[in-house]
Specification:
The protein has 355 residues and is an alpha+beta fold. The chain has three domains: 63 residues, no CATH class; 84 residues, DNA polymerase, domain 1, CATH 1.10.150.130; 164 residues, Orthogonal Bundle (hpI Integrase, Chain A), CATH 1.10.443.10. 45% of the residues lie in helices and 13% in strands. The strands form three sheets. The chain has a four-stranded antiparallel β-sheet, covered by helices on one side.
């Protein structure tokens, strides 16, 4: 039978379990579902340790139990939390993130959790919601983005309303498997695709294939960013749904060299374009606004891919193609050149592409 060492009330117990094994028991305060402070007994088996070690561990537990409890969460709904987050936190993000997370709030998060008290929302409930999204065939990237948005809304709730921990932490998203297989064009496929496109779309795709720009960076290009003598292109801004901002990453502001073959396309496009002032967007719409990369894909690139029997190519496909060509060049040269603007001309000529 286990022997107990008597201690004064509130100082815990050291329990002899036999076979030189010890355990400790103590009381600690906690808050119940109503926010009231209650006491509960805690028990921990320590194994084969000395009584001195057991006493030391027990005292540490007692000191921790004497610390003031976190304040009880204020009674506030997720909808109220989301509105305060939208007011104070959302403006600190880039325009692309602001737009996406506003849509996530209004379309998914508030309809799902809006009327719930934040302290009643559990990690298991969020896990079940994530599983439900997967069963409804939402793409893995969408599920991850919605979970990330929910996590960011809950993050300031501890400082603002005493909510701890963040219930979105610990939710397992699972393996992110792309809905469509990633692929890149060969030089022959690039030539065939460009031949199918009209001048504006052909020029945009050719520039992207040979510079590796992100879609928003391509949309935000202005004539003043291009040096026609050297072919040097300055990437200084990013466009997303009518908003101009700095590039996506710290290294986003950079230079790229447009190959001579592609520069001839750019000159031809400028000759027929009605928007050629330095401040005009290179691929501006008829009203002078930045172009819609998605519209270019739907109207020109997708039909061309279908006619050629290719999978649908996107701006990510073109960016990936540029990276593949560059890696092949670097592997042949035996090194990677990082001492200046990106020399995409070498990568293209390496594969025999001539626009």
């Amino acid at each position: 039978m286990a022997k107990r060492e008597k201690r004064s009330y509130g100082s815990g117990e050291i329990i002899d379990l036999g076979c030189r094994r010890l355990a400790i028991r103590w009381r600690e305060p906690y808050r119940d579902a109503t926010g009231k402070t209650q006491q509960r007994k805690r028990f921990e088996t320590l194994g084969e340790v000395s009584r001195r070690e057991a006493a030391k561990i027990l005292n540490e537990k007692l000191q921790e139990a004497q610390r003031p409890l976190e304040p009880a969460p204020e009674p506030i709904t997720f909808r109220e939390l989301a509105e305060k987050w939208r007011e104070h936190i959302l403006p600190t993000y880039k325009a692309s993130v602001r737009i996406y997370r506003t849509t996530a709030l209004e379309t998914h998060l508030i309809p799902k959790f809006g009327d719930r008290m934040i302290q009643d929302i559990t990690t298991l409930e969020i896990q079940e919601w994530v599983s439900d999204l997967r069963e409804k065939k939402y793409s893995p990237n969408t599920v991850e983005s919605l979970h990330r948005a929910l996590t960011s809304v809950f993050n300031p709730a501890k400082a603002w309303f005493g909510l701890t921990p963040n219930p979105a932490h610990g939710v397992l998203i699972g393996r992110l498997k792309p809905v469509r297989q990633k692929w890149a064009l060969t030089a022959a496929q690039a030539c065939a695709l460009l031949a199918q496109l009209k001048l504006k779309a052909r020029t945009m795709v050719a520039v992207d294939l040979t510079t590796g720009l992100r879609r928003g960076e391509l949309e935000g290009l202005q004539w003043e960013h291009l040096n026609f003598k050297t072919g040097e292109l300055r990437i200084e801004q990013h466009h997303y749904r009518g908003h101009l901002d700095e590039p996506k990453t710290e290294a986003g502001k950079r230079r790229a060299i447009i190959p001579a073959e592609v520069m001839s396309l750019v000159r031809e496009w400028k000759r027929v374009s009605k928007r050629t002032k330095p401040s005009d967007f290179i691929f501006a719409t008829r009203k002078g606004k930045p172009p819609s990369g998605n519209l270019i894909l739907r109207r020109h690139v997708y039909p061309a891919c279908k006619a050629l029997g290719f999978p649908r190519a996107s701006w990510l496909t073109f960016r990936r193609t540029f990276d593949n060509w560059l890696q092949k060049r670097n592997s042949r040269e035996g090194h990677c050149r990082n001492d200046g603007p990106c020399r995409s001309e070498d990568a293209v000529r390496l594969h025999g592409w001539h626009g």
